Amino acid sequence: MKQVILNVPENQFAFFMKLVHSLNFVQVQEPVKSEDGLTEMQKETWKNIKTGFEEMKMVEEGSINVRPVQFLLNELGE
Question: Domain of 19?
Answer without folding.
Answer: 10-77
